[in-house]
Amino acid sequence: MNPPGSLAGLDPNLDEHLSTQILAPSVHSDNPQERIQARRLRIAARLEARRREALGEYLDGKKESEEDQSKSYKQKEESRLKLAKLLLCGTELVTNIQVAIDIREIHRRVEEEEIKRQRIEKLENEVKTSQDKFDEITSKWEEGKQKRIPQELWEMLNTQQLHCAGLLEDKNKLISELQQELKTKDDQYVKDLKKQSDDICLLLERMEEQVKNVMKTFREELYNIEKAFEVERQELLASNKKKWERALQAHNAKELEYLTNRMKKVEDYEKQLNRQRIWDCEEYNTIKIKLEQDVQVQQLVLTRVPGWRSTWPTPVNVSCLATTCDILEILEQQLQQRKAIYQLNQEKLEYNLQVLKKRDEESTVIKSQQKRKINRLHDILNNLRSKYAKQIKQFQEENQSLTLDYKRLVLQFKELQKAMRHFALIDDEKFREIWLMNEEEAKDLIARAFDVDRIIHTHHLGLPWTAPDFWFLKNVGPISQQPQKSATQIVEEMLMHTEEEEAEEAASEPESYLDLPKQISEKTTKKILMVLCDESGFLIESKLLSLLLPLEQNECYLLRLDAIFSALGIESEDDLYKLVNFFLKYRAHRLSSSLQIKSCSQASMEKASMEKASMEETSMGSELELAEQTEMEGAKEESLVEGEKEEEEETPPSPWDIHPNDVLKILEAFVMGLKKPRDSRAPPRVQKNMRNNSKDSEYWQALTTVIPSSKQNLWDALYTALEKYHIVLTQRAKLLLENSSLEQRNTELQALLQQYLNSKINSELQVPPTQVLRVPTK
Amino acid sequence: MQETVTTSALLDPSHSSVSTQDKSSTGGHTSSTGPQPSKPSITPVSAKSRNPHPGANFHRMRRIIAEDPEWSLAIVPLLTELCIQHIIRNFQNNPILKQMLPEHQQKVLNHLSPDLPLAVTANLIDNENYWLRCCMQRWPVCHVAHHGGSWKRMFFERHLENLLKHFIPGTTDPAVILDLLPLCRNYVRRVHVDQFLPPVQIPAQLRPGDQSDSGSEGEMEEPTVDHYQLGDLVAGLSHLEELDLVYDVKDCGMNFEWNLFLFTYRDCHSLAAAIKACHTLKIFKLTRSKVDDDKARIIIRSLLDHPVLEELDLSHNLIGDRGARGAAKLLSHSRLRVLNLANNQVRAPGAQSLAHALAHNTNLISLNLRLNCIEDEGGQALAHALQTNKCLTTLHLGGNELSEPTATLLSQVLAINTTLTSINLSCNHIGLDGGKQLLEGMSDNKTLLEFDLRLSDVAQESEYLIGQALYANREAARQRALNPSHFMSTITANGPENSVG
């Protein structure tokens, strides 16, 4: 009842339509259930087909991959070869026709060419002969013209006619031949056409045959391959089946074996059980018999209680019984006792049990308490842990923030420093400007004062005036000290000087230009430095050395010394002098010590000297003079000792005496000694930038007292005198003014009087005033 | 029950066809079903193809038929259906296609008539199914594979070919073809015409004498027998790639005249100008057209420095040495990959010039000189050229009067050359010794797959042994094709050996 499944190889739609009409539930039926059924069947069929397909493919692929030498592979290979051969042969067979036609065509062409050549030859010959004939005929015409006799002419004409006819005949023959040829060619053409059509037919036939053949063989081969696959599959199936059967058989055999084994074992066990049982029964029986015998014996004994002791050896009934009764009594007593003991024991045990139960309860309570406690402690622990973690986090954060703060502060500090430096510079500048301004002002004032003084002196006092000359008047700008030179600068200077010196050669006073500390000559310094430079090359970086090669000697020395100094930590002038002094001292000590302790070994001596040197180094500043003294002494001593040997270089402790090998030791000692002061060097450096303002007030004070007090007193006196003089002069001026005004009034009054006297009214009056009055003028 | 069986049998064809067309959309009509049907008299429009069977009313009561995607229970046809019907009916006057939804487009295309005028359909419809119907209606045998697998292209190519074949200059209106041009220009890639009709002769020919006098008449009427000028057409086709022409007349029957088969100079010039202007042309074939040296040179001159031309086929013509020299020049001035000069009249000098061009050519893959007459001189020249050439794979020298000296040289070439895969020396006079020498050369060769020595007087033994060697080579080539990585190593390993040998 599954037709779609059986036809699944075909198109599922088609077969479904075909099959459902007749047998299966149709998808077009009225009943929905039936339709559903039909569709289900269809889906199942499709799935089945797909699965089969996939499975087949899978099998194929597997076979191909894993069994190269299998039968199917062989068959496939064989079929492939066979088909290739067939195809090749078939194509050859088909193309053979073309090839044959080709070669026929070639032959035809060759023949054609030959015939053509012959024909052309023939035609040419023919043309030649006919031309000859024609020439003959034409020549004869000329001949004919000379003929006068008609018969002859007729004869000749006849012959000419004959000749012409022959010529024409020849031509006609040729034409007919050619036409014949053409006809044969036509025939041949027709034949060729026929042949070609035949060939084409053959070709078609062969092609068809080939196609058929190929199709057939392909089918066959396909069939063969399929068969091979099938066979192989069958074989595989058979072998697998065989294997399976064998395995099954083996399994069955094993099962059987196990079964028999088991059966055997069961039987064994049964037997053993039986034996055991029998044995047990026997034993039981024997025991029983024995016990029964014992009872019988005891009964016997009981029966003879009274005299059982005496009668034991010989079992007599009565005495035995008595004894047994006794024994029974005793036994009963003992039983009672036992019972009592048991009772006691039981009570004891019960009591113990109670106690134990109580204890158990207590212990459980305690346990629970402990548990609770543990829990609590756990909680606390957890809390503490979390707290701890939190705190760690917090502190980390704090740390972070603090570090951030720190960084920020450092930055700020740096910025502040920068600002400070900046402001310091600006302040310096400002200070300088203000100073200059003030100074200028002061100088102006002073100049004015001097001017005034000069005027007073020359004009008022009539004394000659001399300008005072003070040191501060020449000063311009803030008072400052000379900066300290750095070690390298000094060295540079020194080198320059020595160079000059060498150039001059004559100069005999080396101390003149150097402000070196007193006793050390420049030459010695230089030599010491040279030795130092040569010996302590390891302090210089190799890169620098390579760079130095092309430079001049002096520059080279300078740079190397610079490097060495930086390595040794020598920075200032003082350090340099310290170094040089140290060298000198070292030498002196060595000499002295060698003088003092001749037997001492070199090493110990050096050690001692080094110690001493370092000690001295520490107290260098104070003991400088002392050292110089000792040095001088050393020099003296040296000169005393070695005077005979080296007379020339006696006065300065020449560095040649410092053995190059010692230099390193000296340096080591020096560096060891220098360590301490270096630590405390930081603060002074800070002060370096501080200005010394101690002299400022003095300076300004000096500026104020440019006019001395004696002169001021003089000025005061002069002032009061002049004041008095001024008052007198003003009084005089006032009096003069008064006098002049009075004079003016007088003249005015006189004029008025004159006017009155001269007026007309006077004449009209009875008494002229003139009469009355005495004219003052008259 | 009987009734249901009959109806299903009747309905089967339509069902099966529809379901094969559109299997996937089964069950997509649940939403389109309307209210319960009451009147069975109204037939759904969509079931036009179905046989309306009055007895199968219950069939229509079903909501869904999973096997029929067009099944609809709607009593009144949907408006979309009506519209689509209308559009189909009036498509000629008012073609509406692109504005519709894809499924509606599909429906319209399925019902359009293949007889619609091309002016309407050509540039509007791209659906292959429609053009398949058009082609099937017009031609009984259709090889769509010859036309790049596109039915539309096939339709236009064959349509154009038909028009050209039956075009008679002077009588047919040239507008017939030029009108088609804007419609087909985007689809035609290949023009294959095996017949060009001459203009109709107005003076009636005398039947009996025509064959013999045809030559003189042809000369007299030559100006009038020009064929259709392809210039405009070729210039109009923007995607033309292949041009396959035969100036020939088919089925002339008893009207045979020599001047029917003329390829005139004017034809030649116009054709040359046309192909020169066509920069998309890849394949050009002009066969069986009586092309002689001068015409060949005209055509080849127009092909010099052509940007894309790959194949030139001038077989079955009358090309001699001068034409061959032209072809040799073309070899060095183009990207030609295939050259076919079969069945012409090339002799030794032509072959020598071809060989000279071939010696340093790096494009040519196939050279066919079948049925010429290059003889030993030409053959030797070609063999010399092959000693330096590293590109040619196929060489056909069948029927060229070659003999032993060429074979000697070719055997040397075989030992050296690693590119040649196929040589054809059939129908020559190689001879026994030549065959032995070729066998010697073959023993050192690992690449040759085909070597045709039929009918060339070679001893059967050597032919058999050569066949064995070829078989071995073919097997090796097959192995190489199966695992290409191995192939590389063998090539590198073989290289030095070959050069030493």
Automatic annotation (TrEMBL), chain B:
GO cellular component, one term: sperm flagellum
Residue stretches in coiled coil: none
InterPro entries for the chain: DRC5, Leu-rich_rpt, LRR_dom_sf
Biased composition (Low complexity): 24-34
Biological process according to GO: flagellated sperm motility
Pfam families tied to this protein: LRR_6
Ranges annotated as biased composition (Polar residues): 1-23, 35-49
Record's function text: Component of the nexin-dynein regulatory complex (N-DRC) a key regulator of ciliary/flagellar motility which maintains the alignment and integrity of the distal axoneme and regulates microtubule sliding in motile axonemes. May play a role in the assembly of N-DRC. May be required for sperm motility.
The protein, known as: Dynein regulatory complex subunit 5
Organism: Macaca nemestrina
